[in-house]
Acyl-CoA dehydrogenase (Niallia circulans), 364 residues
Amino acid sequence: MEMSRRFSERAKEIDETASFPFDNVKELQESGYTSLTIPKEFGGQEISLYELVRLQEVIAQGDGSTALSIGWHMGIVRNIQEANWNKDTLTEVYENLLSGSLINGAATEPQTGSPTRGGKPQTTAEKKGQSWVINGHKSFTTMSPVLDYFLVTASINDTEDVGNFLIPKECRGIRIENTWDSIALRGTGSNDVYFENVEIPARYFVEKLDSRKKINPWLLHIPACYIGIAGAAQKEAVTFAKNYSPNSIKGTISDIPSVRSKIGEIELKMQTAKHFLYSVSKKWDEADKEQQSHMLPELSAVKLVVTNTAIEVVDIAMRIVGARSLSAKSPLQRYYRDVRAGLHNPPMDDMTIEQLARKSINEY
């Protein structure tokens, strides 16, 4: 909570200048937070999914950009254990991650859009002797200013295959362009990255991908981020209501029935969304492999419900505060912009509804 409070104090400047939260990320690294999801067999604490979403929610209450950025790292750190990487490469990477190194995927491309839509990467990988040579252009590469590893999806030349390639930042041929101009989550550093004849050793071809949809429960860091932002908006609105006393009334506006109704509606929505997020996280943690294999629609539903609820909560919070919520001085206008970014994080709402429809039709 103390770190989150400091993040909150820096959030306004980060948003106004669209600068990356270097200090926040440094604090998370120095505290050991960035290594919490490393499996125990590699020296980490292997925190549960439930623990991760609770922690990410708190970080987001301070600064949404910081939470979403570090959330991608936290999920990938845990997820790569399930990807059947070469043991030596996995050990090497986890050793560096234990020391504070940062990793994120580079998958989205201007020509293909979100990788969840199934487009084949235009980025290519060509085998040359004992090396791979990577060429391509990735967009929305969150945390690009501080990444130590890029996990890049690429099409393998002369085949129909697609793979993940691990590219350390020291490699020659990596070029980052500061293209992030979003009005939401302005501090994520989600820039365009170019890989121009980047040569990596053969062992860094870490995973061959297939077309089957993999279950990635660690993506719940996404709804955790947005419900955290909504929680900050709730606090801001309720604090305002308890202290604002126009001379047209006795007491504060928190005594007005219509305002109390909105405060109660926010609380109901927050409780509902949190119970859904927490319960599904716990269900995953307690499930066996067979049970987990059927949880994709449920995990996707959590993201849809929690993210859309967060948007609704911020909207109601702004109705409580009124026109002042649109002031540049109010954090609510930042929460309003930031929380809408969740609509464009995976999985997309329409794909979730299709998953749920398929599940229901198959069951009944």
Summary: Residues 1-101 form a domain with the Butyryl-Coa Dehydrogenase, subunit A; domain 1 fold (CATH 1.10.540.10).
